[in-house]
Amino acid sequence: VLFLGEIEADFALFENSYAQYTLNKELQPFANEAEANRYSRAELQRRLQSLVAQKAIAESELSVKEKDLERHKGLLEKGVISEQEYESKQLDYLQAERSLNSMVVSVSQTREAISNADKTTRGTEINRAREEMNLLKGVIQSFNRLKKAVIDWELRYVLRSDMDGKVSFMNVWNVNQTVNTGDLVFTIIPSENSSYVARLKAPAQNSGKIKMGQTVNIKLENYPDNEFGVLKGKVRNISLIPDKDGFYLIDAALPEKLITTYDREIPFKQEMRGVAEIVTEDLRLIERFFYQLKDVFSR
Predict the structure, then answer these.
(1) Going by fewer Cβ within 10 Å, which terminus of the chain is more open, N or C?
(2) What is the pLDDT, as a whole number, of residue 190?
(3) Which residues contact 229 (CB under 8 A, 6 or more apart)?
């Protein structure tokens, strides 16, 4: 038994819709009706062929009776036969005519029955297609609803990264602890063969001058810049809104190797800290802004 919490109702709806669709596919409820319609039409077609043959015989019999009646009429006029004999032949002719008319009606009725059988077959096929389409539509709609419920749940409860790597928590978090907008929950240390990233925190003042691609000079703690030089990077991401303390979060991309301006390679360590200087585009004033480096260089 699955316990899915908030998305359980949407999952149950999808599960039920899918079960109805697959059951309809397996049982084919319209198949028996379609087979019965085909058998009925085949029987009607055979009956029609028999009636058409009988009608042809009846037409021949009527033609013979008509000629026989004409001969006896001539004999009656000559006084060779009696009126009673002529009336007997006339009665035979009328019976043959009635038999032919009955055949004509039967042929017409059978053809109408075949037409109705074709109409029933088409109706059955339409109903089958409509039922399958409605069931499939129900599956698609319930699946999209379930997918939306999962996405909404993830947006509400899941912290997701767009890169592979290891999670590094900056603080101690407890179960059911409240996370506020702008809180730094953790950082992602990217997988191997990824470039380094520096996470900066910049005050709102003069933040409008910070742009993508600007140069970042980083002075690391425990690595004096007059001895080791500085690391250079580029601004690659700027948060749209400040955090709860009024700082904008900025990502600076660094080279694959941490080599300073003094050609010194810095060994990578977790939680490296320092001060970052972002060089703005206003070269006339040669302005520079200094920002406290908040997070780690991460790989």
Answers:
(1) N
(2) 67
(3) 260, 261, 262, 263, 264
